[in-house]
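Progress against Task 2.4 (sequence-to-structure conversion) is shown through the following example record, which the project officer requested during the mid-term review.
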Amino acid sequence: MNEGSSGNNKGRELAKEEEEEGEEEVPKLASLRITHTSQSSSSTPQSPPTTSATATTTDQTKRRTIWSSTPGKNFIGATSLSSLSITSCGNMNEVYSRLYCIQTIDDIYKSSGGKSVVISGQLSHTISENGELPVDSPNYTLTFELVGSKGKEEGLKFSLYVEGGEVIYKDGRTSGNREGSRDGASAREGKVEYDYTVNSAHLFFQSTEESSYFGLGARLSKPNLKGLEVQVCHPTGITSSSSNCSGSSTNDEGSHQYYSPKNTSNSSTVPHFINPQTNVSCHLHNVEPSIFDFQTSTNWYSIRTVCNVLVGTFLVGSSPLDLCTRYTSNSNVLNGGSGRSKLLPKWVVGNGILVGMQGGTHAVQDVMKALYRHKTNVAGVLIKDWTGTKSSSVGVGSSPRSSGGKGGKGKASHDTAITNCNIGKTNGSNTSYYNYVLERETYPQYQPFVDSLERRGISVGLYLSPYLEEIPMHLRSGRRYLFGEVEGDYFVKKQVVNGKRGSIGSRLSIKNKSNSKKNTQEVTMYNQFKKNKCGILDPTNYNATSWYKKVVKEEVFDYASASFWLADMTMGGPPLDGLYTSSPSTDTSPSSGLSSHNSYAEQWAKMNQDAIKEAGRDGDSFCIVNAAYGATAKYAGATSLGDHVANFHNEDSSGSVLQSIVNGIVNGGMSGLTHGHCAVSMAVPRQLSNALGTSIDAKSRELICRWFEITAFTTLFRTHDGNANINDEKNKNGDMLSAYNDEIVMKSLARNSQVYVALAAYRLQLLSEASFKGYPVVRHPLLHFPKDENFIGSASSRSRGSGRKKKADEDVTASSLSAFMMGNLIYVVPVLKSGVVKSRVYLPEGGWIHLWVSSMKMFTHDIAIAMYN
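Structure tokens generated for the chain above:
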């Protein structure tokens, strides 16, 4: 804890002083200038003249380069994609038919008023011997424009538009964009042989070896993006058997996800990053999947998107923390900013933890008795299977699939820090129905149980999903049948050609050769499962959103007496080829399922926030989301990394489960997700248990307790018990064990719940900062110590000693890369590995007090600390 923590008032004064100082130093962009240099090439005629272009802005005190191209290299490119596929892990596979990487600059001019500069030219995939480009080469226009109110320009907006490309017809003729129109006779349906028009724009930026980049959503990989290619794309709901998902195993109906520090994809993905060296951030306005390439070169990086229009904004600040404020400001929402999270209800911050459970009334009551016995501070109970459980552990219409271990189709991967373990048929199965109606058979005496919780000041939470499933006939009797109310009207649609559905949503054929046969087409409900019926609500359908909000009020608030819920998107994003009533209103894309794939998370969060508001529960209720994009944080009460299962026995030197969790929270904080947290998994694979299979293993026990220690310093303290009904009497021999049954774990949970509650007043202060300034509650130390190279992630060890000295130096370096801050006063260095008893810890600038030691002794630089448990 920092020396400023002697009192909350002093902390507030320090924060106020820092804010005032920061506002005085904020640069205001005053002008825009483009410089251009043409360099004649002495190489062969096949090589075009090399060019370089630099966009330079000036502030009130000094000249600052916001964007610069790399001399001698094209700074604009494009591709003609033929297909795109996305796995359930969010990994994009692009298949392109033509790459346009030759660039000319034909004109550079300023607009009237001088606030924007336009660069125009052509792109090509080839060049003739005399140095000319093909007549049908695509045209591009790159515009830079100062954004902000007059006299207070704070950003530079860039807009890249590429159009055209070669089209080859069956009669051998081609048509280009220079002619203005295509041959009508040749362009008739069925006459196009190959279509190479551009549908993916690329923009390149000059970089340096010293540059570092942070953000792009709640990724589990290392915070510094340098050396990575990050795909900003949501997972799809369906995974084919050929999908390559590191550290996870899936089947047709969801999955147990495993944490992996090497995974650069996540359900909470945001196209925004910060460069702390220049105090410049960049974010896209696009909603289509995009790729940020910081891996290919140290001298440049690139951004490309699956759209022929690429729009984004550079923001300029006085510090990384100031950039968080600017990106989340309400005035920046129209320019692609995230907006800011609202304050959470005081009861969830001050009363204790949110306990995730399932298995029926009696199973949940048994766990609550254990929590009461250990005097655990509990604010809420989050019930997952409130809609009823499926009779089969595999789930309706699914086929069990394992990616490793006995009975799997392949060998477990050793390339990731956390790999899948064989957890049998329950792996990948959703055991609860996707529905919004309380199932009384699973939860008899539900209302008396809820009343008993409310008498203790404990609220009830539920799981809600955008998916709605057809339930069996015997569960419809005497109950509201929601699927029957909306089938065919409120779901995302799918186009069927010649009676065949074709793909199931994870692959999109962007361009096809024409088919001479006449196609018969119809539109049907998109089915999320291969078998049985399960639709996904269309958030662009006004009637669908109105119906959902009414159901939430009647079934969730009134009938189930819930005060909060997790808006669950475990199944992944919507289909790439889905048809919607309307599309998001953006300046980048026409109507398509592709433009709704990422933005669905934002629209889903808005649906839930609107449901709370229209029910009159805006002050005491909230929702948690486990998928985010764009302005999701503006609507969600909190964001979660997801309810994943941890296998602590497949960790290697590349990272750990707990490190990936810390990474996800701090990365999200730099991307506008200020209320980030991660639920502690209380589910442990039985195969990791003792010989009798009755209790969890020592390593899992220790690291679950370490997980509690991390979570006590985050926005929410929440637990979950996986997908299997591990507390259900009928599932005692299932593939999961519950840590709720472990005495040591329960004692640690009680202790850390007390730590969480003790920080309630400070946490409320930080939540207020998040709402009014956009500061994340959990912060990467770089936000407060931007000049400290130990937090960059690329700094080498400070000493090359040997023996104990070398080990101590390695500990200090490792601690700086795993540390995080709660606000500006508490510096946390978590224990990430099992068996750690004592280690040296790096301390940033200033004087620090050990929180667990009664002595008020001040520490600086680094310190040897005994690791308590």
